[in-house]
Amino acid sequence: MKELEDRIRRDGTIKPGNVLKVDAFLNHQCDVALFDAMGAHWAQLFAGRQIDKILTIEASGIGIACVAARHFGNVPVVFAKKTQSINLDGDQYVSSIYSFTKQREYPVIVAKRFLQAGEHVLLIDDFLAKGNALHGLIDICKHAGVIVEGIGIAIEKGFQEGGSKLRKEGYDVKSLAIVEKMDADTGNIEFATTD
C-alpha cells in the first residue's frame, strides 16, 4: 500500500536492533484517515470472506482494528489483554507470547464469552516480525474453535521469519507494507511488492 509505505519513509525512524519506530502515525499518535485507508484496503484483500469478528491484541492493534471493522460491516472487535485484572471475569482463553519490542514474555487473555466456536475471525495487528503475538492469538483461536479467515498486518518485517512461517502454516497473511531492508545509519528503507 503506497500510502503507508510513503508515510513510513517520511515519518518512520530506524533504531539500532532492527526497530522501526512509527509512533508518529501508527502506534502512539494515530492517523485515523490512514487507518481508514488501511481498513478499506484489507476489505478489498479479504473480499468474499466471511468475517464475524476481528481479533487483535492490546494496545497498538486496537485502533487499527476498530477503524478496519467499519469496512467489514461494523463487526465486533475483540482484543486480547496482556494483564489479568478484576475486570476480567469468567472463563478465559490464555496464551503466552514473547514480545520482541518489550523483550519479555507476557500472557494474552480473551474472555471465552467473546469467541464462539464456528465464528470466522480476521486477525489484525500493527507489526509482524517473528510472529510470536500472532501465534498467541492463533493458539487462542484454536482453543475457542474459531476459524482464522486471514491475518491483516500493517507493517511486516520481511527480513524476519514471522510472515514466511505463518504463510507456510497455511495462513493467508496480507501485509500492507513489507520492509525488506532497513538501515539505521542511512535511514534507507526498501519495501517488497505487496498485493
From TrEMBL:
Pathway involvement of the protein, from the record: Purine metabolism; XMP biosynthesis via salvage pathway; XMP from xanthine: step 1/1
E.C. number: 2.4.2.22
Domain Phosphoribosyltransferase: 47-173
Residues in coiled coil: none
Record: residues binding xanthine: L20, N27, K157
GO terms (BP aspect): purine ribonucleoside salvage; xanthine metabolic process; XMP salvage
One GO MF term: xanthine phosphoribosyltransferase activity
Cellular component per GO, a single term: cytoplasm
Top-rank lineage group of the source organism: Bacteria
Binding-site residues, 5-phospho-alpha-D-ribose 1-diphosphate: A129, K130, G131, N132, A133
Compartmental location: Cytoplasm
InterPro entries: PRTase-like, PRTase_dom, Pur/Pyrimidine_PRTase, Xanthine_PRibTrfase
Primary localization class, coarse: cytoplasm
HAMAP family, A to Z: XPRTase
Subunit structure: Homodimer.
Protein name: Xanthine phosphoribosyltransferase
Organism per entry: Bombiscardovia coagulans
